[in-house]
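Below is how a single chain appears once it has passed through the pipeline. First comes the sequence as given, then the structure the pipeline wrote out for it. We keep one example in the README because the format questions we get most often are answered faster by looking than by reading.
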Amino acid sequence: MLLIGAAGVALSGTSAVLLFRKGPSAAEKERQRLQLLHQTGRIAHGEIEEIRNGVAFYSYEVAGVTYTAAQDLKSFTFCEDNELPGQVGQVIIKYDRGNPLNSMIHCEWWSGMQRPNPMAVAAERI
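Resulting structure:
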């Protein structure tokens, strides 16, 4: 009887740990996804359609199929004045060969976005 009780307590404890443990946060899951894409992703050319509120909307073609995606870039620091680099236009995408919808244009270790030419930006401000 004592052995059955001990097994029950051990099973209850293990179940509680498995049910109530915290997994990685959403931000950490996104960081891991981007890291995996950076390491194993294939490259394609695409186009940024729009950048709105720190979210870049872009499209690209893989094997004759056009994909449209978006990436939230607000968590990345691009320059001192917090402007996003590049303009609407050409971009390089990394995507998962097994699931081309899984893609990115920027992560901590790589960027497919063109940085604006400082001279062109200065000329625009004049």
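Residues 119-125 have pLDDT under 50 and may be disordered.

See the next section for the split statistics.
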